Amino acid sequence: MLQQKNIVEKPERLSNYAGIISEQTSHLQAQVQRLLEIAYTDRSSLPLEKENFEVNTLIREAINDLQPLVEQKNAVIKTSFSIPEILVKADRSYLRLCFINLIENAIKYASAPVIQVSTGLKGTDLVVSVADNGIGIAQEHQKKIFDRFYRITEGELHTSKGFGLGLNFVKKVIDTHNGKIELESEPGKGSTFTIIIPCT
For strand 114-122 and strand 76-81, is the pairing parallel, antiparallel, or unpaired? Predict the structure, then answer.
């Protein structure tokens, strides 16, 4: 986005992108060591650094981090927060990466992305869902999609590069929080990923 010739004529966007770069540089520096530990081990759980925070704010931050990709793909991201503020005690950095991963996937795998991010409570559990209008995932792939290094290479999916670690990481984070992640999808009709974790 910064390489666009007319970006200097849009100081507000330029400032926003610079802020994203600065914030993400600091964030990534803090996370590299943690992620490397995960990548080079087969441990089933992660060392969590739990803190109290508000989930809807974290989701807004994740969406803002993806703003350059949103603009590049002309994506529409809608939010539906049934409760204005939801406080949880969890690993903020890991959950932020989970939300970024799910929203980014939703943007990448649709030609004209329209994404709905919803939050709510089910008893004492946090429920977050990311629904898209993408190409969907066939039934035979759905059980394997969270496996380490698993990638679907059929149809349009091969056009997006990756290592097959994103969804595996998301599931590992959610499992370590004693939660679960569910997938509903049908080819040609999009996908909905739903995260459920305890609030405390």
Answer: parallel
Q: CA-CA distances (angstroms) from residue 36 to 33, 56, 88?
A: 5, 28, 26
* Yes or no: domain 7-198 corresponds to CATH 3.40.30.10: no
Which residues, including other chains, have CB under 8 Å from residue 192's CB and lie 6 or more apart?
129, 130, 131, 132, 183, 184, 185
Q: Rounded to two decimals, what is the model's pTM? A: 0.77
The predicted pLDDT at position 156 comes to 45
**What is the C-alpha to C-alpha distance for residues 65 and 9, in angstroms, rounded to an integer?**
22
Length of the chain: 200
Phi and psi of 4, rounded to 5°? Answer: -65, 140
Tens digits of residue pLDDT in 92-104: 989 998 999 999 9
Beta strand spans in 44-131 (E): 50-54, 76-81, 87-91, 114-122, 125-131
Q: How far is residue 44's CA from residue 178's CA, in Å, rounded to a whole number? A: 12
Distances (CA, A) of 130 to 13, 65, 100, 178: 26, 16, 11, 20
| Domain extent listing, the chain | 7-198
* Strands 87-91 and 125-131, sheet pairing: unpaired
Whether the CB-CB separation of 98 and 180 falls below 8 Å is answered with no
Tokens of 63: 């969406």
